Amino acid sequence: MPTRRKVLMSGLMTGAAAAGASLIRPYAALAESHGAMGGDMFKTANGEIAIHPISHASFVMETPAGVIYNDPVGGAEKYEDYPAPDLILITHHHGDHYDQATLDGLWHDNVTMIANPTVFEKLSEEMKAKTTSMSNGDSGEGRGLPIEAIPAYNLTEDRLQYHPEGRDNGYILSVDGLRIYIAGDTEDIPEMRALTDIDIAFVPFNLPYTMDESQAASAVAEFAPKVVYPYHYRDSDPELFTRLLNEAGSETEVRIGGWYGSTT
Prior knowledge:
The protein is an alpha/beta fold and about 260 residues long.
């Protein structure tokens, strides 16, 4: 058992009597337990999911099936206040998504990982043994959760060198009745716009690496998740994104997490 792990999962299971998979507002006790970084709670069929934005594209999700880390970077010390990961997702090899030193510090005997092929090939044999390589279009599972690897790439001519088609992943996780979309680094690609029945989405916008606020708002208005987290938006304007989304008549709720030291 990793020393940083805190036994929080019993608290996540208290919502088992709830019917369906409705979404609820942030739960104050969670923010108190994790200090200023806080977190949001979302009710599932048999419990709750807690989402903790960490920084930029990194976040922690506590779920009834285990604790999921997405693109953890910045050093293992950033995660000392959170439960250790049961499952780690890596979208691609860029340094703000994949950092070997951070993985080394988080790694333990019972963790598993899913990564795109580029990252998989960089791993040690020890890590490869506990990692599933998934390419665009693949379906599989992690810790019993169904997972789909969704394309993530640039469309605009002068951005193609950042994320070429076919290399990097987004992910869709089915977590106890909720469908969660993690876009990775991408523009408003047709595969994103075609998504359906997404409960929670993490969508990036920052130029030149992904897309601008207008593209992101247009795409989100089309695939209509119940909740969207703007993330990976350094030097961009989440309030502009929110305004454009509202002007498009979208009913999606925007959650502004503390990715860059701001509060929800």
